[in-house]
Fold:
Amino acid sequence: MCVKEGNMLVRRNEIRNIAIIAHVDHGKTTLVDGMLRQARVFRENQFVMERVLDSNALERERGITILAKHTAVEIPDENGRLVKINIVDTPGHADFGGEVERVMNMVDGVLLLVDAAEGPMPQTRFVLKKALERGHRAIVVINKMDRKDAEPDRTLNQTFDLFIELGATEEQAEFPVIYANGLTGQSGTTPEMGPDLHPLFEAILKHIPAPVVDAESPFQLLVTNLFYDEYRGMSAIGRIHAGKIFAGQTIARIKRSGEIVPEKARYLFVYQGLEKREVEQAEAGEIIVVSGLENVEIGETLADFNEPVALPPIEVEEPTVRMTFGVNTSPFAGKEGKWGTSRKLRERLFEEARNNVALRVEETDTSDAFLVSGRGELQLAILIETMRREGYEFQVSRPEVIFRQGENGETLEPYEELHIDTSPDTVGTVVEMLGSRRGKMINMTDNSDNTVHLTYLIPTRGLLGFRYQFLTATKGMGVMNTLFHGYEELAGPIPSRLTNSIVAWETGVTTNYGLKNAEERGTLFVGPGVPVYEGMVVGETQRGSEVVVNVCKKKHLTNMRSSNKDIEVRLTPPRVMSLDEAIEFLADDELLEVTPLSFRIRKKILDTEERGKQAKREKELFD
Structure:
């Protein structure tokens, strides 16, 4: 039902557009599962996997949301009329903040999920700040009420303090509160929850404003997301800000540069549950999919062909970390990958930059290497893993921070606000590690679960390669979260890696005998029977410089054995690194070779003799 507001403005009471925002692992996607079930989106006997919106294989493996997802449910209002609720599930990790910032353009309010035991976490601050800056109202959902250590009163007080701290208006600070357990699909206005999510649905209808739109103005839509359909071509997702659109209509695509290109909106879709339903027309206030476009990009405006007026483009924070992506130049190049040429690599990276506004891709002096900049190590690692699974073969450098020049010509670097929870036994070790990385302690408090919470301000450089060392020092029990703080003056030298590499001396296949000799010098990354090449990193040593070993060496056969121990060589199982650990391990003179089947750490200069000459020249230059 539309209600006229005057001056051609109309309030569309039959629609609500909301985003669900929260810190990582506070239950956003699980709560959406419950909302879909109770809105009868699924058939009674239909099998539905958990976290149904995390459709990306990487999202399911890592248990995090990477891409913003869209769905819609219909629920009756107090008069029995059906109201459509467009729901956007957003990432909780700050590295994917570009997704969050885009989504805020499409919605009129947010559900802020907060864990009843953990309270507001660092990335709760990040996503809430973006929502408040857009002027959105929030419904606070205190989730996971079934936890034994749940403290809803403390969580509510901390959440209110956070709203005030982030500069919420008086209206925004008077937020409604819903207590919920997304896993069991329960909610209530008090900690004594009801049997279903009806109180949550009621709160959305009551407190999230219906879109107020200009239905008679020329058509306008800001493209906030893209996906490719092999049958219908490129599809653009966005909210209609004004006017209406018909299937098959000729429209104008206004580029960021201001150039206007004619397009045809061949197909129109709206969201209905997990499906996209084809429609003949759509009006302002609705989130739609326009398919069959040619070269549309995020941040462009789709507008009326006769009266094209651009909307303000999406602005996201600048990247802080970058890596070099290059064509694989190792001796094993071309053996495992499907795509490995510079042309294919270039096409894929620039396609990613089109779909991800938080990512930047730049050409370099050479045609086979590209600079890729993002919001953090995790965002770049997800891109690497995605491309690897698609069949690409390439090599990447160690991540490095992006410096800036200050007003007075001084060098500035990015800083992070680091939050750590660890046991009292390991606090001393963690404090010592962060001190050596130029971290400044801001706060230190005791948590209710007998852990210690540390808050630090630390250069982003100090966090590169830190996570694995931190998990080792805390025996895997420590938790760390980061939030971009801003640019400040250069902090000075920071030690990157305290260990050195064990490097293969020749190309061949590893043997027990060769590995046994190498094992005495440190920890190995490979076992017997593994193909290696000269310059490939096969282990880690505590020594002050790299160690070159022949891991392919064979024992000369004789008729005599010196002792029974020669009959069988027992090796310690090698350390198998994940992609994230391999990226963290890289030194400045190393690269990571990435293929669909494996990833190998290698030296930039593979030739052992040439590498020695280079080190000698650098030492003479330094002296």
